[in-house]
Design brief:
alpha/beta, 6-stranded parallel beta sheet, 10 helices, 23% strand
Amino acid sequence: MSDRYAVIGNPVEHSKSPLIHAAFARQTGQDIEYASILAPLDGFKQTVTDFFRRGGRGANVTVPFKFAAYDLAAANASERAHDAGAANTLMFEGGKIICDNTDGVGLVTDIQNNLGIAIQNKRILLIGAGGAAGGVLHPIFEQQPALLVIANRTLDKAMSMKKKVEEKGEFRFVSVAANEFDELDGQSFDIVINATSAGLTDSILPIPTGIFAPGALAYDMMYGRETPFMAFARRQGAEVVDGLGMLVEQAALAFSWWRGVQPETKPVIALLRHT
């Protein structure tokens, strides 16, 4: 009988995770079954509990449940998940739910290895202060950018993320700031990362023109469609990339954690770009 895994979210029908993990399984000869599970907005914990009770071995977690996933397994959280206060990967082992966060390492791997863009000494704008932003914050800092600005509609959330980084004290040589969107006027950045879910609803982010430095990278964590953020960045002359590479890279980390074997990511990224 195949070992069972799933991606849990709301919405979840857009997810390419089943295709990715099926490709990894074929590539590595692993016998797994991977499904999509739509969890009620008020029923994440019950959905996870039911899945593991029915024999599930592990799960990826997508919007809007990454904070809830961490809360569910905080007692058995990896350092990455603890730093983020959010989790995107769960594993059931020895009667316990263990959590990790592979988002940030997936993002950094995609930007640096797949796109060939170094993060060190760059000016970075991170848009959003939710679970996705929390997951990438520390891995970005580890690459020693010159500056990281966290921008969010609600300044309190951005300030909370900034404070968490400062309290850890490991990144004191990196400048970090928290801004509301209107405070971005007059600033420019080498890499702008949209970590909000605005693209799911085609919402337009109130970011000013001029934030993209010459040759800047505009990276949207959403994938599979042209979001308003991507269209805006394209009009501003930025290099525009969606989050498909990040999705595959973070999935590979989850897969290797679950199965003990590291899959190749580039063939899977290429496959998904052409399907």
